[in-house]
């Protein structure tokens, strides 16, 4: 187990159980490249606000992370800011997905699903997110599905 000390926060153990974690101040980080480490996430997210804890679950057999993790901040406002500025940035060429760890499940059932077709092959998830966030809160990140036809989905709150 690794111990980290963040300025003004004190010692925190990586791998802290979710019951001990402040869910409102925690960001879920997904679509992580296998090269991403807890240390790298710490260094990236501390630029957005004071980080209390970083946890990346690992496979018990391979000891490799499972492609996602959690970053706990000192406050909910810090987590919200990190989500806003770091969602969809590319890490090792892959756009990471950064959302609230304690997302209200009811909010996923409300709103609109948008299908956007005939996309230019250069359009990526970040561009779609930036474009459509001007029209409302995007509940789930857009996904570009590449096939012989390019299209995407975006979900907005009502």
TrEMBL record:
It holds the Pfam family RRM_1. PROSITE patterns: RRM (PS50102). InterPro entries: Nucleotide-bd_a/b_plait_sf, RBD_domain_sf, RRM_dom, SF3B4_RRM1, SF3B4_spliceosome_assoc. SUPFAM superfamilies: RNA-binding domain, RBD (SSF54928). One of its GO terms (molecular function) is RNA binding. Keywords: Nucleus, Repeat, RNA-binding. It is found in: Nucleus. One of its GO terms (biological process) is positive regulation of mRNA splicing, via spliceosome. GO terms for cellular component: nucleolus; precatalytic spliceosome. This is RRM domain-containing protein.
